[in-house]
Amino acid sequence: MAQLNITITEELLHGLFLSNGKEVFSKLLEEIFNQILLAQSTEQIVY
Fold first, then answer.
1. Residues 2-11: pLDDT tens digits?
2. How far apart are CA 29 and CA 6, in angstroms?
3. What are the Cα distances from residue 21, in Å, to 5, 8, 36?
4. Which of 1, 38, 39, 47 has the maximal Cβ count within 10 Å?
5. How many CA atoms within 13 Å lie on the side-chain side of 47?
6. Own/partner pairs, 35-43, CB within 8 angstroms, 24+ separation
7. Alpha carbons 39 and 45: distance in angstroms, whole number
8. Does residue 19 surpass a pLDDT of 80?
9. What crossing angle do the helices spanning 10-18 and 22-46 adopt, rounded to 10°?
10. pTM to 2 decimals?
11. 7 dihedral zone (left: phi>0; alpha: psi -120 to 50; beta)
12. Are residues 46 and 14 in contact, defined by beta-carbon separation less than 8 angstroms?
């Protein structure tokens, strides 16, 4: 099982706590999925 460190902006984190969260949560998931895909593609290139 792989371990990933997900980096999110301070702005996004703030939004999760301050807003209703629906739109911000959607953006958070987008960031997470993009970083996972990037890590997987980088892994494929290396190997």
1. 677 878 888 8
2. 11
3. 22, 15, 22
4. 39
5. 5
6. 35/4, 35/6, 35/7, 36/4, 39/2, 39/4
7. 10
8. no
9. 150
10. 0.64
11. beta
12. no
pLDDT digits (tens, 9 = 90+) for 30-44: 888 998 898 888 877
Distance CA 9, CA 21 (A): 15
**Of residues 4, 32, 2, 3, the one with CA closest to residue 16:** 32
What is the rounded CA–CA span in Å between residue 41 and residue 24?
Answer: 26
Question: Per the structure block, which two tokens stand in for 31?
Answer: 């960031």
Distance from first CA to last CA of the chain, Å, rounded? 17
